[in-house]
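Section 5.1 Outputs to date
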Amino acid sequence: MAVIRGAQRANPDRLSIILPQTITQQPGEVQDLLIGIKNIVEYPERRTMTLADPVAYATMRLSIGASKIICFLYHTSHTLLDR
């Protein structure tokens, strides 16, 4: 959440968020933070998948289309670390 806030302050027009699933599957405080962000990509067709698979798809999309990727994870998260 701190990363999103910082990017919004720096240059909100350059902020793009790719969610592994949908906004409604994010925690309430994250949903509140996403309000007003122009560039959000959601994948409702992945709504019924467990989180690890949609994260893998999102990571693959990022690695193909981005020149730089910075990931911020909770210190207990293994979703990306295990991939």
